[in-house]
Amino acid sequence: MSSSSAAPAAKPPIRDALVAAAFRLFLERGYEQTTVDDIVALAGVGRRSFFRYFPSKEDVVFPDHERCLADMTAFLAAGGAEHEPVRRVCDAARLVLRMYAENPAFSVQRYRLTRRVPGLRAYELSVVWRYERALAEYLRARFAGRPDGTLRADVIAAAVVAAHNNALRSWLRSEGKGDPGAAVDHALGYVQKTYGRPAQAPPAPAARAGRPDDVVVLVSRRDAPLWRVVQELETALGRA
Amino acid sequence: MSSSSAAPAAKPPIRDALVAAAFRLFLERGYEQTTVDDIVALAGVGRRSFFRYFPSKEDVVFPDHERCLADMTAFLAAGGAEHEPVRRVCDAARLVLRMYAENPAFSVQRYRLTRRVPGLRAYELSVVWRYERALAEYLRARFAGRPDGTLRADVIAAAVVAAHNNALRSWLRSEGKGDPGAAVDHALGYVQKTYGRPAQAPPAPAARAGRPDDVVVLVSRRDAPLWRVVQELETALGRA
């Protein structure tokens, strides 16, 4: 995401030092028992430096979400009409996963902290909400003028976030072991299969020119349940 | 929901008086500028009475969510294996709609207030999250042992909440005019169509005893796209 103008070229060392000091104290003393004064004392900087980087103590727990939200917005804005919309929001969600996967130990620590502190849980929900709105706004624009455009946009954005978080949280609960990418791909694949256009076009007739008259005859009772007929049909067509 | 033991037989008048006083002050002075002392003074009760009904000033803004959450949990717990799971969570979501629709003027006031006060927005997100978790936990239990059971449960719960809120918020933005029930039914219908089993069971063979040998013959090219074949099939079966 180096193309995003919102992303700094490198993280300032003071910012990193503040995050490291804060997390050390949160884990040692507890989040509520740690003050901003404690954090700046341990980091060896002044109180003003803290507030230059973080509006509040809560923000130091989620130091990369603002950058990630900016990256996501830029990524979505850079998409054109040639991008299948559901695939695009799934790819946008993968930016969040990448942020978590960049630093597994930190992500797992934060996950544990967030479980324990209700204020941080609320903060996290508001961050998740902002990601979801960014995806929904993109989809609303792509679906503009279509029937139920905003409804579909909101539902698909929520489904993408839920699928992403289902896989992400499994990984965090497993102490960040293994590659979360495959699990997130699988989860997002479920959403894409449900709502997206097929990734691959069906083979052109020319590709099957060898058997142009290949037909399937299916005989079914009229009162058979539709799902059962489709099942038979898939088997007959060799696509089950 | 009169069957729920969590629902009180009647709202205590003091509780209603506190809510009415709080909203009058929130609208006149602003939420942040109103203290609990202001609210109890206007309602003519003591400070302790306030905290007997509401843990904090934020809670007075959402006085019915705890009851509604309890109703929803009881409703889901009362469901049996005969209830189609996606339909059941959609019906559970309708309990929330009913709470909003019971008092349109109050719901619209609160909606406006929640837009303006970030703390209330965060509170609302945490309430929405609890509804979503209640639906997801129910679906996780119903899908237990199935492939991707927790993934499907989480995604469907999120889709139900997003669809419900899409319709609810349109109604709130329209100043609570008209019946929100039809819009919510339409939105939830979209989710049920996507994830649920068909609402109506196929007619029993006995009901069609007059034409027991009624069959359909469908002939299709093997390389026809599946969606096209299903479309033809639906037409042939008279279910399109």
UniProtKB/TrEMBL annotation, chains A, B:
Record feature DNA-binding region, as residue ranges: 35-54
Entry annotated with the keyword DNA-binding: yes
Keyword DNA-binding among record annotations: yes
Domain (HTH tetR-type) ranges: 12-72
Pfam families assigned to the protein according to its UniProt record, in alphabetical order: TetR_C_14 (PF17754), TetR_N (PF00440)
InterPro entries in UniProt: DNA-bd_HTH_TetR-type_CS, Homeodomain-like_sf, HTH-type_TetR-like_transc_reg, HTH_TetR, MftR_C
Keyword vocabulary terms for this entry: DNA-binding
Coiled coil: none
PANTHER family documented for this protein: HTH-TYPE TRANSCRIPTIONAL REGULATOR PKSA, HTH-TYPE TRANSCRIPTIONAL REGULATOR RUTR
Protein name: TetR family transcriptional regulator
